[in-house]
Design brief:
3 domains; nine-stranded antiparallel beta sheet; Beta-galactosidase, Chain A, domain 5; TIM Barrel; about 40% strand; Immunoglobulin-like; alpha+beta; single chain
């Protein structure tokens, strides 16, 4: 696949948008973006998304009509998504009919508000006619910041905007939890039971009316938008790789970075084989266990696992509940079980915890995470809600927000991010049992080989720049380690036969900086990023450009400025 999604522009009077397949993106009024996106989604009982197939597009001066259908995951919807420019404003509507019975967790319109609205005053009208005042959250909100929505209104960037929803009751969640660059307004409320049935012949009809007017002159771009200032503070984080989860035979590859992060589900039959294969890389291990201390035999499995760490250089151990109210989070029970098992094995190892799925779970379940852990851990998987490259690029600025909030909440404890990867390693919201290995060896692979998705951009040249940008966003003082992708395989930095992919060089460059003094700074626009290291009188930095055009960037290091041209979706190394 190409790195950027193809799109077409549609305009009607002061309104404009980009059509990217089924997504109505970057919806703008008078040249100012109002919404990040509006789209129709079809999600099954496991929250998996059935893609909408666009059979044809019909365009006039005042309408844009998509004739769509869905076929995957047992869905069979047929209908339209249409944009209508009216005198009163812009309407986006969906009208879908299900050909067969279908169980869904959500089918209908989803509206994405841009993250630049953080802190903006918001008026919320409710279905009963009452209204109240609130704000778009500044800190990443763990739970729905707004519920019971019939209409919304706000002012931002010189525009007064109002939206009215019909066809269902809507609510909002903060998608920055998943490093999505948006607040999402959606139906149906999560307090209602799900999945819920859609009968054969039943129609889903929803619409949103958007009104806007100019109240102030538009914001002028900063003339210094191509400058990044790097300042010294903290140590450059350790760079690690995730352990390969693909099937044997494993290729012979040279290690990269200082550690390997291996995730072991103690309910699977081949966790020992996975540990043994990872240890053969010869690097220190960051070991993460998934277990349920209440399940029969799992405490015994934990004792066997911690005993198996004898003779292996282990830098830290993390543990997470597999199920229950603390699913995918470290709670007091699992932390105590791991500490006890390590003590019985005679292993003095740092015990860390947090969440193994998304920052979302750490943010929502912070009260469960013990305060006496030796460090915090969480992950980044930006292609969770949507798969477009725009989603991937925009997530980098959100990663900086997640890093700041995690470091702040950790209260001085070191923070470990990883694995950082493109798509989730498992579906943490699935209601059906997840597949897994059946053998005690690695002939089938393990972990993400069964439960994770593969993304074609893993082999793209542009992923190298994205990885450097991600490290620049996450690499702030207080972050001790960053673990990316896998050693090899379809989710790795090398192919299954061991051939390096373009991202390999980027990680080698990052790993070479580890141990020095960290040089970090802010991106002026979320598209150009830089991270550096200082040691032995030498300053060096990696500069990444995620834009579709080359940029000339002025990087301010502590010792002086360097001006460098960075190719589109590329990166360069600079130093003094």
């Amino acid at each position: 696949m190409s790195w950027f999604s193809s799109s077409r522009r549609w305009e009607s009077g002061p309104w404009s948008l980009q059509l990217r397949d089924d997504e109505i993106a970057d919806l703008s009024y008078d040249g100012t973006r109002v919404l990040r996106s509006v789209r129709t989604v079809v999600r099954d009982r496991n929250w998996d998304t059935a893609p909408l197939i666009v059979d044809r597009v019909r365009e006039t001066d005042v309408t844009l009509t998509l004739h769509v259908r869905s076929e995957e995951l047992g869905s069979s919807f047929r209908g339209i998504v249409r944009v209508e420019a009216r005198a009163a404003g812009l309407v986006v509507l969906t009208d879908l009919e299900s050909q067969h019975p279908f169980e869904t967790n959500r089918t209908g319109l989803v509206v994405l508000h841009p993250p630049q609205l953080a802190g903006t005053a918001l008026t919320v009208a409710h279905p009963g006619g009452l209204s109240d005042q609130t704000r778009f959250p500044e800190a990443i909100s763990p739970h729905q910041p707004v519920i019971d929505i019939a209409a919304l209104a706000w002012e931002h960037a010189g525009l007064s905007v109002a939206m009215e929803f019909s066809g269902d009751v809507f609510e909002m969640e903060d998608q920055r939890n998943w490093t999505d660059a948006s607040y999402k307004t959606y139906s149906r409320p999560l307090t209602l039971p799900f999945p819920y049935p859609v009968a054969a012949g039943e129609r889903v009809q929803q619409s949103v009316m958007i009104r806007a007017r100019r109240v102030r002159a538009p914001f002028e771009a900063d003339a210094g938008a191509d400058r990044i200032t790097l300042t010294a503070g903290g140590r450059f984080p350790t760079i690690a790789l995730g352990a390969a989860t693909g099937p044997d035979p494993a290729p012979a590859v040279a290690p990269i970075g200082s550690e390997v992060l291996v995730e072991l589900d103690l309910a699977t039959p081949n966790w020992r084989a996975a540990l043994d294969r990872t240890a053969r890389a010869g690097l220190p291990l960051d070991v993460r266990f998934a277990l349920d201390p209440a399940e029969a035999g799992e405490i015994e499995a934990l004792a066997e696992a911690t005993a198996a760490l004898r003779g292996i250089d282990v830098v830290r151990v993390g543990a997470f509940e597999r199920s229950g109210d603390a699913r995918d989070v470290t709670d007091a029970d699992v932390a105590a079980a791991v500490r006890s098992a390590l003590a019985d094995a005679g292993a003095a190892v740092a015990v860390i915890g947090g969440s193994r799925s998304h920052f979302t779970e750490l943010n929502r379940e912070r009260h469960r995470v013990p305060d006496d852990l030796d460090g915090w851990a969480t992950t980044v998987t930006p292609l969770f809600h949507a798969l477009g490259t725009e989603q991937l690029v925009e997530s980098v600025a959100m990663q900086r927000l997640v890093a700041r909030q995690t470091v702040g909440d950790a209260g001085g404890r070191p923070v470990h991010f990883g694995p950082v990867c493109l798509r989730p390693r498992f579906n943490n919201v699935a209601t059906a049992p997840q597949p897994g290995p059946t053998r005690s060896d690695l002939s089938e692979g393990y972990g993400a080989e069964f439960t994770g998705a593969v993304d074609p951009r893993q082999s793209a040249a542009e992923l190298a720049a994205w990885t450097i940008a991600s490290a620049a966003a996450l690499g702030i003082a207080g972050v001790a380690s960053l673990a990316y992708f896998e050693e090899w395989g379809p989710r790795g930095i090398r192919t299954a036969s061991g051939d390096p992919l373009p991202v390999t060089t980027a990680l080698e460059e990052l790993a070479a900086m580890a141990g020095g003094e960290l040089l970090s700074g802010e991106s002026p626009d979320g598209l150009i990023w830089a991270i550096g290291s200082r040691g032995n009188g030498v300053e060096s930095a990696l500069v990444a450009n995620l834009a579709a055009a080359a940029r000339v960037v002025r990087v301010s290091l502590p010792s002086g400025d360097i001006e460098v041209s960075v190719p589109a979706c590329g990166w360069v190394r600079v130093g003094r």
